[in-house]
Amino acid sequence: MTSSTTFQPVLERIAEEIERTPGRGRPADYIPALAACDPRSFGMAVAEPDGTVYGVGEWRRPFSAQSITKVFTLALVLAREGDALWEHVGREPSGNPFNSLVQLEYENGIPRNPFINAGALVVTDRLHTRTGDASGELLSFLRAESGNQDLTFDKEVAASESAHGDRNAALGHFMASYGNIDNAVPVLLDQYFGQCSIAASCADLALATAFLARHGIRADGTRLLTLSQAKQINAIMLTCGTYDAAGDFAYRVGLPGKSGVGGGIIAVVPGRCTLCVWSPGLDERGNSVAGVAALDRFTTLTGLSVF
User: In the chain, at which end, N or C, are there fewer CB atoms within 10 A of the end residue's CB?
Assistant: First the structure.
């Protein structure tokens, strides 16, 4: 690809191809507030490091960011704690579903990586200990990086998750029994469900992710992460960002990515651009069917990949 001006035609071509695709998966039905989403909805945005953003479809429509937010919480904690964080959470792919209790038992309460639910709970717990308001700190960061001060929590989604959050509560209590959780589990869960309920658009999330394409530099030019830390987060996204489908995602897309059960996926081309795609129909592993297909086409059409 010779010029960034070709991003818009590429996005439009992808949207046309996706529109003709029959199977789109099913929305997340275990969170009732998400179950009503139309699986044929689609939006996609690309942001360049200078803040230029391109989009297609419903790229400015807010949706539930869900586990995409785990990337930003991880960055905020890693910036504060550095390598000490890795004493509490691992960096290896899980190979198990994102809400599995099994691995925690034989790994003594240390989650396999920051993107499965247990690992994300640990990261949120550590941010809450450091700031006193993990979800508020995250929201402020996303508002600043996206330039959208209207970003907020979706209280209906948060309440829905809280009402169906027994598995996450079990994960929290189990890790607390090993001394790997600082805060009271109900407080942690409230912060975690708030974090996951943030509603943002493809444009918002592509822009908010751009610090990873800028090797750790925030939108205002200040440095959040060292070069090594930015590389570390991109690496964990590549190996762990789409749960037990990470190998297939790396094979098809070839970019660091992070999915959420709201149907969104963010992806990073270091030094070049960041992407966010949204379509709420999910596959059996919790990843957007149309989203993965769209990112696959993007890397094929542009030749942009980390490989």
Answer: C
